Amino acid sequence: MSNISNGDSETMIKSRTGPRLVVQQGAERGRSYAILPTGLLVGRAAECDVPLDDAEVSRRHARFSWHGARLLVEDLGSANGTVVNGRAISGPQPLNERDMVAIGSTVFLIQGLVSRELTPTARNMDAVAPAMPARYPARAPQAAPQRSWLWLAILGLALAVLIVILGLGALWYFNQTTVSQAASVTFLTPTNGAQVALNVPLIVQATATDPRGVTRLELWADGALVSQQASPSPQGASPLLLNFSYTPTTPGNHVLELRAFNTANQQSAVGVVTVNTLPGSVTPTGPVATDTATVAPPTDSPTATSPAIILFTPTLPPPTSTPVPTSAPQPGLQAVADVNVRGGPGTNYPVLGLLRAGDVAAVTGRSADNAWWQIIYPANSGSAGWVVNTYVQVNDAAGGVPVAAAPAPPPTNTPVPATPTSTPLPAAEINFTADSTQLNQGQCTRLRWRVRNVAAYFVDGVAGAGDEGDREVCDPVGSTTHTLRVQRLDGSTQDFTVTINVQATGMPKPSLISPDDEENFDNGDDVEFVWSSVSAPGTITYNIEIQSKDDGEWENWRTVTGMNGTSYEMDDFPDSRPGRWRVWATSSTLGDSEKTGWRDFEFED
190-227: per-residue pLDDT in tens? Predict the structure, then answer.
């Protein structure tokens, strides 16, 4: 089918710039697979081009193939489906550069598609047709060359028709896949790009929808399974609202992923957000100074109260003019709150002016203790001023500025003012409650908070805004603690908590999904039994009992207990015998659920 020689294939396999699958998530994260001209077969079987040791992957799960210059992926009737960019596919799906393909717990990134048409192999193939007539010049007495040209013309016409058909087919498949799907996962909190606190539990709340009903949601963080919860109803729910708890323990970006499963135990939708945890998002990394800006009132008026300062990491606005690519970034900073500009690095220096929140300034130096920055003030002048590090955000280039000499401090023998030179910090007002802390399974409540005269606060790790707010939470069975972390004006932090207790209404039993009752199989077939998951306190495991009928009597053939998943594969049942199966769940807290009813099956010749 392909004219590519073994040597060319080997070159493509070793190339890091050709078309390839790069594992972004899963057991083989970082590994890449070259996409051969003959395509790739992905599955659990050892003979697959990309074998995946994953119980969620079928033996022959999906195939990547070329249709002309277009790369397609097709699900081969797998149990859990194939997901492209968060949506399950129902037919051959055209792929583009940097598309994400999820197969089981492994996520592949498509790379190198743009370079496929320029490979030496492709150019050599295109050169074959014009080169052949040159090697065999035509002879007048012979008719064979004329027939060769005729066949080449017919072959070229057929190839053109085939390319048109393939192009129309690919366009049809592409249009089919653009139809919106009903299955979806929507994050309610946190939002994409949210800044969260380090080592503080983060409440993840989301809704999932599926026409078949959502039976289970899984929370994944940075490619690892964190938690999973089942719908209170064995038949699933749509929409399904669930809460999870995740605690970021390292600074930086973290990818949170919620996977929804329907009543067929198929992954039907995926939602993804990225949160950013900064090491200084709650407690400033530099020395804490009390030099928040205060507008100087007339001497016969009381000193104005300092406004509350919300210490968010600011996002610098894009430049209003086109940057010169060859110029290096200049040292600079941006004020994240109103801050005084002083004549030197200390609160004992006089106030020269004010930087408003969002103002930017050029940085020319720093203090020896890194607590103050020297800036050009006023802007575009030859004069200098100093601002405290606590209430500004500097760019990377500012890290290389030298230590600047501090001006001589002002005289200390100034007259003692009749009134205090500083105003006591206003008392903080903090209130954190829930409408109800004792709930039954499936009930929700609302958190409420009122916070005043503080620098910043976080609710379940998400930065708050405004003096008060509320949010509905629907917690799982058991105890869930919600945290309000407050940073006071003096730089200290304090946590306030509310614990919600959700009582289970009983140990639910699973529901049988497949195969159907009284289903027949051919002798030697492998059979996969699938059931729904349950939600209950403690660690949940599943059990299956399989019986065979011999001489008219039912007898136990196999019982498997303590399974973590919701499926079991049977490959050695006695031929030509009736059988039946049932399951039940076990909680480390509530014990065993009621067993399901029996479903019959039979093997035939």
Answer: 888 888 878 877 878 788 888 888 999 999 999 899 99
Among 232, 248, 277, identify where a domain stops: 277
Whether 246 and 226 have beta carbons less than 8 Å apart is answered as yes
Q: Return the H-helix or E-strand segment holding 366.
A: strand 360-366
User: Structure tokens of 334?
Assistant: 């941006």
Find the domain containing 544 and state its range: 512-604
**Tokens read off for 324:** 């010169």
User: Given 3-state DSSP classes, what are the helix, strand and coil percentages for the chain, each rounded to the nearest 5?
Assistant: 10, 40, 45
Tokens of 464: 């708050």
Q: Is the pLDDT of residue 51 over 70?
A: yes
CATH number at residue 525: 2.60.40.10
Percent of the chain with pLDDT over 70: 78
From 503, 527, 542, give the residue that closes a domain.
Answer: 503
79 shares its domain with 169? yes
Beta bridge partners of 220: 225, 257
Single-letter code of the amino acid located at 536:
A
Q: How far apart are CA 30 and CA 49, in angstroms?
A: 17
Contact at 8 Å (CB) between 460 and 440?
no
Cα(453)–Cα(399) distance, integer angstroms: 32
The CATH number of the domain holding residue 454 is 2.60.40.2470
CA 335 to CA 293: how far, in whole Å? 11
Q: List, as own/partner pairs, every contact residues 155-160 make where C-beta atoms lie below 8 angstroms and the sequence separation is at least 24, other chains included.
A: 156/129
Asked whether the predicted pLDDT for residue 290 surpasses 50, the reply is no
Q: Are 10 and 89 found together in one domain?
A: yes
Torsion angle in degrees (nearest 10) through CA of 377, 383, 388, 393: 50
Burial string for 452-477 (b: 16+ CB within 10 Å, else e) reads ebbbbbbbbbbbbeeeeeebebbbbb
- For the entire predicted model, the pTM comes to 0.30
Give Cβ neighbours of residue 340 (< 8 Å, ≥ 6 apart): 291, 292, 293, 294, 351, 353, 354, 355, 387
Answer for the pair 374, 387: CB distance below 8 angstroms, yes or no: no
Residue 471: phi and psi, rounded to 5, are -155, 140
Domain assignment present for 122: yes
Q: Tokens 């709150």 belong to which residue? A: 337
Selection from 306, 318, 300, 320 nearest residue 354 by Cα = 306
Ramachandran assignment for 117, one of left (phi > 0), alpha (psi -120 to 50 degrees), beta (any other): alpha
d(CA 548, CA 553) in angstroms, rounded, equals: 8
Three-state SS string across 131-163, please? HHHHHCCCCCCCCHHHHHHHHHHHHHHHHHHHH
